[in-house]
Amino acid sequence: MRDTMIPGYTYGTGEVPPSPVSLGDFELMKKTVMFGEDDARYLRMSYDLLQDHVEEILDIWYGFVAANPQLLATFSTPDGKPIDHYLAAVRERFEQWILDTAKADYDQAWLDYQYEIGLRHHRTKKNKTDQVESMDIVPFRYLFLLAYPITFTLKPFLSDDRHSDEDVQRMSDAWLKSVLLQVTLWSQPYVKPQDY
Question: Taking 80 as the threshold, does the pLDDT of residue 3 lie above it?
Fold first, then answer.
C-alpha cells in the first residue's frame, strides 16, 4: 500500500506522467550499474532495519543540507530564508522515498514516479507541488554528488546483530546502485532528449 496521506505524494496515481524511459531501457541501466536480483533482495533486507529509523536518518540528511548553504538555497526564499513548511513537506515525502527505495518494487509505477521526482527538481515543476517561491531548479551539479552523502550516512543504520558484515556491505552497495539509478532517472528533464 502506498501512503496516499502524504501531501504531494502521487506515486501510483493518474497525476504522474509516464516516464520517457521504458522498462527495457531501465533494465539496460540496471545492467550498466550491475544491479541484479541480489541487490533487490538486499534492499528488501534493509527495509526492516530502516523502517524504524527514517526520522533519525532524515535528521542527519537535513542537518547536512542545513550545513551547506548551496543546498539549503533550494528550500529557501529568493532572499535566502529557509521555508520551513516546504522543508517539512519534502521531508514527509523523503521518508516515504527511503521506504519505497528499500521495497525495491521497481515496476512501471515506480519508474513513472522517478520521472515525476526529476521534474520536481527541475524548473518544469520545482516549487509547484508545495506552492512555494524558492530557487526554480535544483542545480544539476548537485544531483549526482548527493549520492555519496546519502548512502554513506545510511550505512550505520544497516548494521545490527542479525546481519553479517558481508550482508551490511551488500545492503550498502545495493543502496548506492539504487540511488545512482534514481539520480540518473531524475536527471532526464535536464538533458536534451536526443542526448539522454
Answer: no
CATH class of 23-190: mainly alpha
| pTM listed for this prediction | 0.95
Give the Cα separation of 119 and 109 in Å (integer): 15
Facing residues of 80 across strands?
none
- CB contact set of 55 (below 8 Å; sequence gap of 6+): 95
Q: Where are the domains of the chain?
A: 23-190
Q: What is the largest CA-CA distance in the chain?
A: 49
CA atoms within 13 A on the CB side of 81: 6
CB contact burial 58-69 (16+ within 10 A = b; e otherwise):
beebbeebeeee
Residue 56 has a pLDDT of 97
Looking at every residue in the chain, the average pLDDT score rounds to 96
Q: How far apart are CA 182 and CA 21, in angstroms?
A: 12
Q: How far apart are CA 103 and CA 175, in angstroms?
A: 11
- Average pLDDT on 141-145 reads 95
25 near 147, Cβ under 8 Å?
no
